[in-house]
Design goal:
The chain has 124 residues and is mostly helical. The protein folds into 2 domains: 1-61, no CATH class; 63-124. It is 77% helix and 0% strand. The protein has helices at 9-28, 34-60, 64-85, 92-117. Helix 3 runs antiparallel to helix 4 (92-117). The two termini are 17 Å apart. The mean pLDDT is 84.
């Protein structure tokens, strides 16, 4: 899979349909988190656009070491976010399990899509 996958405007708008559905549910239930959801959606949109440009640049380099470096940086920050959101002390053993799960789960997912991306590609 070497081509850039473009998401057309209609597909992008269909994703925001679910955001509108969520907002109507939140408003109907009087939860009062509409502003937080809108700000989060705006942040998500900007981050995804920026990451799209960054990833296109990184993959265009066709350098395994750069790709692996970015992968490990992304996993590091994901793990950091997990631990940052937990407000109670986490035992050292559980921390190891969480870190191993994140690295293994992400690696296996990437490996699966790498292998499924091109049926003629050899994996070794």
């Amino acid at each position: 899979m070497s081509e850039i996958v473009e998401i057309g405007p209609w597909r992008l708008l269909s994703a925001y349909f679910f955001l509108l559905l969520l907002l109507s549910f939140i408003k109907g239930q009087s939860i009062g988190k509409e502003k937080e959801i809108l700000v989060s959606a705006l942040r998500m949109t900007v981050q995804l656009i920026l990451m799209g440009y960054v990833l296109v640049y990184i993959f265009a380099q066709n350098c395994l070491s750069v790709t692996l470096l970015v992968f490990f940086i992304m996993v590091f920050f994901a793990i950091r976010n997990i631990f940052g959101r937990v407000k109670v002390p986490v035992k050292k053993r559980l921390r190891r399990v969480i870190m191993l799960s994140m690295v293994a789960g992400t690696s296996l997912t990437i490996f699966y899509f790498f292998a499924a991306g091109d049926p003629h590609r050899t994996l070794v």
